[in-house]
Structures are given as C-alpha cells and as structure tokens.
Amino acid sequence: MTALLWTGALGSWLFVVTFLIDGATRPGYSPVRHPVSALALGPRGGIQTANFVVCGLAITTGALALAPTYVLLGVAVGVFGLALVASGVFRMDPMRGYPPGTPDGTPETTTRRHDLHDHAGAVVFLALPVAAAIAAFTLADTGWRWYSGVTAALLLAGFSAFGTAWENDDPRAGLVQRVVIGVGWLWLGLVFAHVALLG
C-alpha cells in the first residue's frame, strides 16, 4: 500500500511540474491568461493530455490505498483522480487566441467534447475541496486537520475566483487557476506522503 500512496503523491506533484514547464515553453501560450486545459490543444497537446490521464490514474491508484483506513477521503480523492482522467479524454475547444490563429474570444457554441470537459472540470474543482474538508475531520494529527481545513476553504474561494475570472475573460484567469491548483495539488501530494510515512 505504501508504494501506491507514493504513486499518488508523485502523480499530484508531477501534474503541476509538467504544466508549469510546458506552459512556460509553449509558443503562443500565455500561462497568465490561458487555462491549464488549453495546453491539450495544438501540436504539443499530447503532453497535457497525457498529463491529465497519467497523473489522474496515479492519484486514483493512491486513493485506493487511502480507502482502507480513510474510506470517505479515499472515495473523494478517487473521484477527483477519475475526473482528471476525463479532463484529458475530453479536450476543451480552441478559444481566446489559443492555439495561435484561433479567434480572440469565446465561441457562441461549443462542442459536446468541450461540454464534457467542463463537466469533468467542475467535478475536479468540487471533489478536491470536499476531500480536504473530509481530511480536516478524519486525519488524526491536529496540525494536519487544520492544514486540511484551511486548504478546503482556500480551494473553494480560489475555484470561485477562477470561475469568475474565466467567465469575464480576465487576462489573469490562467494565473489565478495556477495558484489554486498549486495549493490543492501540493496538499494532496503531502497527504499521500504523510499517510505513507505513517504506514
């Protein structure tokens, strides 16, 4: 079980490292404006697609190791991991100037694939704060309970802020999303590591 927990931790952290490096080196892509999901578009789109799927599966594997001791936490993290996989299977539509040559705006209509991506993203952004809230009540250590509770609150506020920024096509929407993802995925990886070290 310890190996599965470390797999979940590495999947959490690798996801962030991959999109940060890819986004910083992708021609025509603005990490400040564009969301992480947009990296699944264009000639190098396979990198982020694989990032969603591989890291989502790694996190889901880690969730299986959490479940015997922390049932509800394992379920919430498993849902989060599977939603990440779905986010990779169903890509968002080109929009807002990316990939290069795409009109700088939001299409009036979107494809079914894009809609499914949005639904998967909503599950991602809900399941992680739910997992953090569950951890705030189930982890044994008081420090971890406080850390998890604060993380849950930050994630809910941050995902709401990103949603507003995205709807308004705020030029800093991508930056807001990256900060929130950093907070959440770092916490998740540390929880996996904490439980692994306890074992």
TrEMBL record:
Q: Does the keyword Transmembrane helix apply?
A: yes
Q: Which UniProt keywords apply?
A: Membrane, Transmembrane, Transmembrane helix
InterPro entries documented for this protein: DUF998 (IPR009339)
**Pfam (any one):** DUF998
Membrane-spanning regions, if any? 6-24, 45-64, 70-90, 120-140, 146-166, 178-197
Membrane listed as a keyword? yes
Domain of life according to the entry:
Bacteria
- This chain belongs to the protein called DUF998 domain-containing protein
